[in-house]
Amino acid sequence: MTLNRRHLLAGAAGLAAAGGMATPHVVRAQGTAASRSATLRFIPSTPLPSLDPIVATSYVIRNHGYLIYDTLFATDANFQIRPQMVQAWETAPDQLSWTFHLRDGLVFHDGQKVGAADCIASIQRWSKRDAFGQTFATFVESYAAVDARTFRINLKKPFPLLPDALGKLSSNVPFIMPERIAAADASKPISEAIGSGPWMFQQREWVPGQNAIYTRFDKYVPREEAPSWAAGGKVAKIDRIEWLALTEPAAAVGALVQGEVDWYEQPPVDLLPVLKRDRNITIQNVPLGLFLLMRFNHLQPPFNNPAIRRAVMMAVRQEDYMQAVVGSPDYYKQAKTFFTPGSPMSSGAGGAEAMKGDLEAAKAMLKAAGYNNEKVVLLAPADQPIAYNQSLVSQALLQKLGMNVELISTDWASFIGKRANRGGPDQGGWSVFHTLWSCADTLNPALHPLVRANGATAWFGWPEDPTLEGLRDQWLATADTGRQKTIAAEMERRAFETVPYVPGGLVEQPMAFRSNLKGMVLSPVQFFWNLEKG
């Protein structure tokens, strides 16, 4: 890890030798040609590996989705759910029927009007993959297209969180696709990216893992409200957006300093001093922050044994991971909790006892658990520094514990494919990997996909624990906030016993952009509407 950081600092030194946000306003149209900028060049956290925001939870694919798709409802900056594609809706007195009317002017990029059948097919596909969607699906009795722009959802029992599900902010987002695409198998990625959002994806110019190009969709009609996170008027003021595959941090920072790119999503903290010296560059932290985490494969030895998972958790020192990722305590804090620190549902119950960072105690626990030198395959995407740097820390930690560790270094696109393999190491499978998760996705049990323990349909790692699932069902069944807090604390305590994953701490992720970019909607998700180059 030290060598890695020195390498980055050396790049920063070479760069040094070589050389605020506008308030959103009410919008009523896409804007005149004079008010638009030609091209915005953006460096995403990783190159775009694939196209399907429903099959994958990758944030880069989620951000891609927001460019080209729209949603029925959306989350605003106050965590309120507001209509987006929906113009109006009615709920039956018994709460068992919801009817939704689409607003005028909704057109897909292929010229077809957005209709009720598209919405139904899109919701059905999303609900097979997303944690919140899977819960929602258990309440659904049937769907019905009332007319071309109206559809109805009939429920088996009341589900007051229905708009919250359809308007969730982050992965997996229930984007609306054409019926012919949304009808595809939810377990297989789509190969065609057609939406009704502000920009069109130029698929002919795209190679997976390389640059991605988006052009403004002239027929998109934004809402009239001011933009607020994913809600409100999505006015496309940029004609062309280019996502560039600059994965070397020093090169990416150099391109930003020279004005060759406009926005760098995740500059390493090591290189921020270079950027801070340039008055033409603005640095902003992404709201809410990001959870670091270690995810286990619960299907295969050795981590199909919860006692072994607890032993590893006991050895983890969050500060080691946060230091490896961001370096400066100004950008991180401990978070021995499964729900977003500071949110109403976060108690950290059981965390202090389970995560003592005690290596010797962990060794004793590992021996008592019966670890028998099974191979531990640590899957590490080398082109995603946040995940890779965590992996290097874990490689050293697991070796200190006496585990038989093999680090498999890969690129992000290959990592996305490999983590879906449920087999053992001898079948190309994996044992553990690292990632990060937006705290916007971990606010409560309904949203948080990584505390789902529903086995084969859970997120990669596939934990199964009926007790944890039962607690989640209890949380969803009550509207009493006090009772919800009590259940959430029980869920955290249970999660520290069964270890669906190990929390690695909370980090602030700064982003950097040229100061002539105005109107940015600062959010946990990187949005491009309302943005223009001055």
Would you identify the regions where 5 or more consecutive residues have pLDDT less than 50? 1-29, 31-35
Strand content: 15-25%
Helix vs. strand class: alpha+beta
Helical amount: 25-40%
- How many strands, which pairing sense, and closed or not: the largest β-sheet? 7 strands, mixed
Mean pLDDT: 92
From the spread of the alpha carbons, the general shape counts as globular
N/C terminus separation: 40 Å
Radius of gyration: 23 Å
What is the count of β-strands?
21
Tally of separate helices: 16
Major beta sheet, strand line-up: 8-9-10-1-11-19-12
Describe it.
The structure is a single chain. This protein is of the alpha+beta class. It is built from 16 helices and 21 strands. The strands form five sheets. It has a seven-stranded mixed beta sheet with strand order 8-9-10-1-11-19-12. α10 (318-325) packs antiparallel against α13 and α15 runs antiparallel to α16. The chain is globular and about 65 Å long. The two termini are 40 Å apart. The model is unreliable at 1-29 and 31-35 (pLDDT under 50).
Task: Briefly say what this structure is.
This protein is α+β, with helices and mostly antiparallel strands. The chain is 29% helix and 20% strand.
